[in-house]
What we know:
By secondary structure, the chain is an alpha/beta fold. It has 11 helices and 13 strands. The protein has helices at residues 11-23, 40-48, 64-74, 88-93, 95-116, 150-169, 191-201, 220-231, 252-263, 287-293, 301-317, and strands at 2-6, 27-32, 54-58, 78-81, 120-126, 172-178, 181-182, 204-208, 214-216, 218-219, 239-244, 249-251, 268-272. Strand 2, helix 2 (40-48) and strand 3 form a beta-alpha-beta unit.
Amino acid sequence: MKILVTGGAGFIGSHTVERLLKSGGHEVTIFDSFNDYYNPAIKRSNVRHFGGQVTVQEGELTDAAFVRRVFEQGQFEAVIHLAARAGVRPSIEQPELYIDTNIKGTFNLLEAARKIGCKHFVFASSSSVYGVNKKVPFSEEDPILQTISPYAMTKMAGEQMCSNYSHLYGIKTVCLRFFTVYGPRQRPDLAISKFTRLIDEGKPIDKFGEGHTARDYTFIHDIVDGIIGALHYRSGPICDIFNLGGSQTVTLNDLISTIENGVGKKAVIHQLPEQPGDVPLTSADVSKARQLLNFKPTTTITEGVPAYVEWYRQMRAEGVAIC
Length: 323
């Protein structure tokens, strides 16, 4: 199968490409901007391991003409759209950038897919779309009446665009709501990355609130299982939505303790108030994904964090700055 993976040099994308190559039978193209949201050397290191097994297209999703040329050259049968401006707090500071990349960029991809006749489109959404959802665990059937950050808004807009293109043009779209993905190669701005680096260096970590906020942490290998399941999902509605979570809610206090154990050092805490835009709890009902995508998350936080710490130390040993 000819597959385009946007964001294929990044955290989730590089693991997805790796899995596709291992399974065999696919021609994989990576679309990535290699921007400086975090150290581009990390992404280039990820891609270097693929050697000549993939085609790499470096450019911006907002460049409609470039996106169109990539599709015309690749004649893709499926798209796994993982590229995005990510993060709740940065989206509050730069909402226009998030709107351009996440909404306009997704539109450009769907338009290009329509024009070449690509009929399968997997879209990476986010648990952030649930906002302050008081019903736990979160289900795909829950009504979403209000998002609380520009990032979440752009992801909800992406889901709606997928629905439009399914209805109007017959493109099978599968939207995946990721719940706090972590593991080797993850972005340096994510909590586990930042806390690991700062604890290892003996520097203070910012702790927002009392540490009772909780997240459904999902290990990267489990998430990729769900993505591959979505790639091969051909039944059901022409536009469908799935939660992909680890089904293990972990408080901020417990996360810090787990990282301390993984690094072998105690954290220095810099206490701060709760941050606007942060949701107090995420918890995924993954029963639908279990049934239809054969999604079975197995990795616990006590297993996953040491795997990240090992990768972090390997990168440091190779002279790659995790920042």
